[in-house]
Every structure is written in C-alpha cells, then in structure tokens.
Amino acid sequence: MSSWRRIAAGEDWEPEQKALVDWLMNEKKVVQRWLITKPLGHGANGVVMLVEPDKSWVRPPVQKAVLKVAIASWASDSILWEVNVLKALQNPQDKEDRTKHVVRMLDHGVMKGMKKDMVAWIVMEFLEGNPVEAIVAFAERDRIPIVCDLALHLLKGVYDMHFCGFLHRDLKPENMGMKKGNYLVLYDVGMARTYTQANGLPRPPRSYVGIRGTDEWASLCSELGRDQTRVDDLWGWFYTISELANCGSSNQQAWLCFQTPMMRLFMKSRDCPSQISLCNMPSQFTKIQLYLRSIGAFDTPDYFYLATLLNEARNRTKRRRLGNPDENSFTIQQNFLERQYF
Questions:
Q1: In 10 A of CB 200, how many CB atoms?
Q2: What is the average pLDDT across 152-164?
Q3: CA dihedral (46, 32, 129, 280) positive or negative
Q4: Contact 307, 341 (CB under 8 A)
Q5: Where would you find the membrane-spanning parts of this chain (predicted)?
Q6: Apex 333 CA angle, 327 and 334, nearest 5
Q7: How far apart are CA 179 and CA 175, in angstroms?
Q8: Looking at beta carbons, which pairs linking 299-308 to residues 24 or more positions away fall under 8 Å?
Q9: Mean pLDDT over all residues of the chain?
Q10: Confidence band (pLDDT; 50, 70, 90) for 342?
Q11: Is CATH 3.30.499.10 the classification given to domain 3-125?
C-alpha cells in the first residue's frame, strides 16, 4: 500500500473524503500549476494536500505548499471566505505587512470537482514546524521563556487580524505552525468573522449564536453560545499559551482531568481561583487573566500591555535561572517590543 493510501485509510476519514483524495491523487494530479504529492489531513468541508510547483514555473515562490480543496460545491463557501480573509490581510489599507505571523495565501481558484460540480480550492504556504515539538525540545526549566516568545508571535497574529477587522474564533495549538527561524504562524481562518461595521465601530452582539470554535480553548462566553468579540479571541490565545507552557504535563489544561464540561466552565469563570487554573505559571499569567476579565465587549484590548507582561515573565524567569540581573533596562525592552510587534 502506498504511503498516501495508508494516511487516507485512517479510521477518522469519511468515505467521501477518501474518495476525494483518491480522485486528486490518481485522476486530477495537478491543480492549476501545483502538483499534488500526498494527503495531509481533512476537515468537515474538504481535504488538505501537500503540493509542489510543477515545471511550468520559472521562479516558483516555494518548494512546498498546502492545497485545500472543498469536498463539494456546498462546502466551497468556507474556502471562498478564507480566500477573502487572507486577501484582506495580505493587502491591508495601511500597506503594512500583516502576515508575518498569519499564513500567506499563494494561489486560489475554482475547478470542476470529483462530481463534476464547481469546487473552490486554495494554496497556502507550508508550515513544517510544530510549536509543541519546539517547546518540548527544551528542558522544563527553560520552557517558559520559549513559550513567552511564541505567545508574542501569536499575539501579533491576533492583533493583525483584529486590526484588519476580523476575529479568528478558533485559536488552538492545532491551528499554529512554525516557519524557519522559529516564527510561529497562525492559520485556518475559515471560521473568521468581521467584527466591525462600515463605519469602523464594533458590530452589536447577537443574543445567541451557539458555540464557535473548539470547546477546550473557547472562551466562556463562546461556550455559553454568546456572540464573540476581540476579548474572546484573546481568551483562546491565553488558553493556548497556557497549554503550551504545560505541554510536558499529562494535563496541559487544568480541566482535562475532569470528565464533566461543567467543571471546565467553572474553571473558566471568575469563581475559580487562579491558583487552580494557573498552577505552576508565572505571576504575570495571573495578571493577564485578571486583565482579560476586565475587558468589556466593546473595549479595545491593550495588546501592548499583554506583550509587556509576557516580556516581564520571560525576563524574570531568565534572571531567576541565571542568577543575575538582566542586561537591558526596562525602557530598552519596552522600545524593542513596540518596534517589533506594534
């Protein structure tokens, strides 16, 4: 059995997804100018394939890329929306690069699918690294500074999406990858939603929308079915970095040792002490939690304050480990953060 057939033979693959992979590998083989090499994964709306540029490219932009193909015409809306979001991020009104920590789109289009209907596809850059592997490679006492660096990268990606008027709504470790140079990159923006009106003000929240995202990393408001705002993305960011900080533990999140969802909701609420939900975390993580609880639905988050707390946690951990004061002054570090991220 070929390697790609073994991948698609997994128990979690639906028959229609397996059929689409078989059609892409054996019949389609090339989408536009992208040569299909093997399947990488699947979702509710389609499959994800590894591709490489064919020989028609004079100067190919990359050596490897990721192709996402809709399973049928009814599933194309999600990919077309993802195309629109990435277009807005890659061509923002202020002309500043907003994709340093958000995945870049390389190509997109519509083609005749397996069932002769028109389906959407998108090609994005291939993110080979995994943040969990990058963290686990370090000794446990050295992980907090690495987590803080990656948290800053993820915060910048969230900030850039918010700056362009989008909420991600599905922040979790599975939706992150690593570029060369240990840059963390956010991807899978198919669940994103615009949160601003034409006048630039936040849209009024809907009374009930149901959960959007993944319950383990979703905010309490999202789990209760309320409409999400910028602070809900930041809660997803916070739960993600908390899990990364505990990635060597059997319970990366405090609520994973409990079977009932009600316990998870309690631990995400104001009633749960931070000593329980943030056990073994730097004190700055408690400050981040308190700040996020203070933000209202229409408030603009202070991303720079969050970055400052992460920088403080990183440097304090390093000083404690090395046993000497940091060489850089607080002012120099603040200036660096502002230039690098905001």
A1: 7
A2: 96
A3: negative
A4: yes
A5: none
A6: 155
A7: 13
A8: 299/231, 300/230, 301/162, 301/230, 301/231, 301/234, 303/155, 303/158, 303/159, 303/341, 303/342, 304/337, 304/338, 304/341, 304/342, 306/155, 306/234, 307/152, 307/155, 307/337, 307/341, 307/342, 308/334, 308/337
A9: 87
A10: low
A11: no
Q: Domain residues of the chain, as ranges?
A: 3-125, 131-341
Q: What is the pLDDT of residue 160?
A: 95
Those residues with Cβ within 8 angstroms of residue 259's Cβ, 6 or more apart along the chain or in another chain:
none
Same fold, 3-125 and 131-341: no
CATH of 131-341, one of 1.10.760.10, 3.40.50.1370, 1.10.510.10, 2.60.320.10: 1.10.510.10
68 is in an annotated binding site: yes
**Two structure tokens written together for 289:** 């939690």
Task: Please give the C-alpha separations between residue 259 and each of 217, 242, 254, 274, in angstroms, as whole numbers.
Answer: 16, 20, 12, 20
